[in-house]
Amino acid sequence: APGAGAGGATGGADEEARLRERLAQETKRMEDAEALKAKGNECLTAKRYDEAAALYTQAIEAWPTNAVYFSNRAAAYTHMQRYDDAIADCRKSLQLKPDFSKAYSRLGTAHFQAGRYRQAIDEGYRRALELEPANAQYTQALEMAEAKLAEEE
């Protein structure tokens, strides 16, 4: 019986070492993705939208379940007037994180910039405000979209 116990412990130690190694690799991958996002954010602020989008794409490849990366790339795409790509990224972001108000706001902005004011209101800004009712930026965006829609009607 003591021999069996020792063998089992060694197997457990090997498994634990493998798990630790996997966790270390996973942590590194996420840290790399976060570094790419940070560089993307710098490019977005500097209005280098192509570069920002490329960095967010690399972050997404490293960590494909991170809703923030899709939302950030959507912001870059909106600035590049790639509205359908921005909308697709917002929707992907919201699949991953259904309560992500910023993704709803960015969805609204992409629709707004594309001249689709009704969708901006219904799919974007109203949903963002349901999640964050006190957000003045979302309120202002909703009011602008409603004014544009009223001009059209």
TrEMBL record:
Recorded superkingdom: Eukaryota
Keyword Repeat belongs to the record: yes
GO molecular function, one term: molecular adaptor activity
Pfam families: TPR_1, TPR_16, TPR_8
Keywords: Repeat, TPR repeat
Gene Ontology cellular-component terms listed: membrane; TRC complex
Keyword Nucleotidyltransferase attached: no
Gene Ontology annotations of biological process type: post-translational protein targeting to endoplasmic reticulum membrane
TPR repeats: 33-66, 67-100
InterPro entries per record: SGT, TPR-like_helical_dom_sf, TPR_rpt
Protein name: Uncharacterized protein
Species per Swiss-Prot/TrEMBL record: Cryptomonas curvata
